[in-house]
């Protein structure tokens, strides 16, 4: 689903809506289809987007994330949808991991786990999406046909380095800490006691920094004609439909039996 939504939104934004900034289009597409703010930051680094474009994409993503986090669980309950199917649907469409967990918890503890796992699977794609965008921007989008062949090191310069830390931390936790200490000890002593406060402060500082870079007058200029919002709404609508079909196939008893 994720690459399908990215390609759809990129083609819709550049060819149908004729948006001049391809960087803004791909940032919004990645934020919508992968995991919101983290994907937007990684993709913006890969395509060397303007800070104003990143701020715009992050702002839109956060606004719609809050709305979907509240509306989707209520709607799922109202129509009598299976909590597990609904959780998978939310995990694949709500843009932020924290919001996904909060929305899933409204449908029950099992639904919360399903929603979180689906979103984590999408989170793993951050590095792949950033790498592909960096390659495409270096070799195609920004390349001067009459200029010299781009250096492979340019891809490394553009690649967001925090993804290296993301992969390294995942490998260490999966193959070193958990086998040695056990999952419960890791959750209690490492994830809980040792790093919880630090992670909270770093997360807070990141969003404060985004706020300090936000200029509402410049953002208004980026919204001229409303094309970024239209792109997000159309892309997210497509994402909602596609993910709902996939959720029913995977968790509704069609492909793998009832959960």
User: How many individual helices?
Assistant: 14
Major β-sheet annotation: none
Instruction: Give the termini distance in whole angstroms.
Output: 21 Å
Please trace the helix and strand order, writing H or E for each element.
Answer: HHHHHHHHHHHHHH
Secondary-structure-derived class = mainly alpha
Low-confidence stretches: none
- Beta-strand percentage range: under 5%
Query: What general form does the structure show?
Result: globular
Radius of gyration: 19 Å
> Would you report the number of β strands?
0
**For the residues shown, what is the average pLDDT?**
88
Provide the helix percentage.
Answer: over 70%
The tally of structural domains comes to 1
Structural overview:
- The protein is an all-alpha fold and 259 residues long.
- It has one domain (2-160, 224-251).
- Helices cover 80% and strands 0% of the residues.
- The chain has 14 helices and no strands.
- It has helices at 2-16, 22-33, 37-47, 51-78, 83-93, 97-105, 109-123, 125-141, 152-158, 162-181, 183-194, 196-213, 216-222, 227-251.
- The longest helix is centred in the first third of the chain and has 28 residues, at 51-78.
- The protein starts with a helix and ends in an 8-residue tail after the last helix.
- The model has no long low-confidence stretch (mean pLDDT 88).
What topology does this entry show?
Layout: H1 2-16, H2 22-33, H3 37-47, H4 51-78, H5 83-93, H6 97-105, H7 109-123, H8 125-141, H9 152-158, H10 162-181, H11 183-194, H12 196-213, H13 216-222, H14 227-251
Helix pairs in contact: 1-2, 1-14, 2-3, 2-4, 2-14, 3-4, 3-8, 4-5, 4-6, 5-6, 5-7, 5-14, 6-7, 8-9, 10-11
